[in-house]
# Entry
Amino acid sequence: MAEVPRRILLADADAFFAAVARTVDPEGAGKAKYLIVGGTRESRGVVCSASYEARQFGVRSAMPIAQALRLCPEAMCVPVPMKACSAKSSEIRRVLGKHSPVVEGASIDEWYMDLSGTEGLYCNEPMAVTAHRIRDSVRAATGMNISIGGGTNKLVAKLAVERAKPKPGTLADGVHIVPPGDEQAFLCTFMLAELPMVGPKFQERLAKLGMTKVP
# Structure
């Protein structure tokens, strides 16, 4: 009997800290197109998260807020609403638990789901259909948007969720599933720098060997 491929999904809350900050302060952060979460404009902190619009100016996580403001001077800066983030994370996880027998938190805004063996439960529908249903359910229950990547293992799901995110200027719809057997072709579309655990120093060592892209 042929082995049945695993069905792994990764749910990633879209711009999580910025999204939660907007729910906490709908009249302030909620109306700011360019939003930086991490501290005030005068603080010496670093960026925790930013709205997708601010990211288009080059604002990134772990960047000093002063530098981020030079790139996007119109941005509004707010502290991290940690209590609200923790509560919203728990809400999302509870919804995911209604759809998957196994939910594993990877961070406050990421959760792996193992749907292996649930084919019959979902009437053998394509995994993308199931993922869209889960996404809609989370939005309806929590008011938060998530993106979902899927495949036969965690690495593929992790990379797939980056392709799923509906960032400005893309055609992504929040779900990207890599079918069984397409893993190698999918991985070959990435640079080594995009892989988890491949940091700047490792990238330099690989580049010296002429390795910059997944072979």
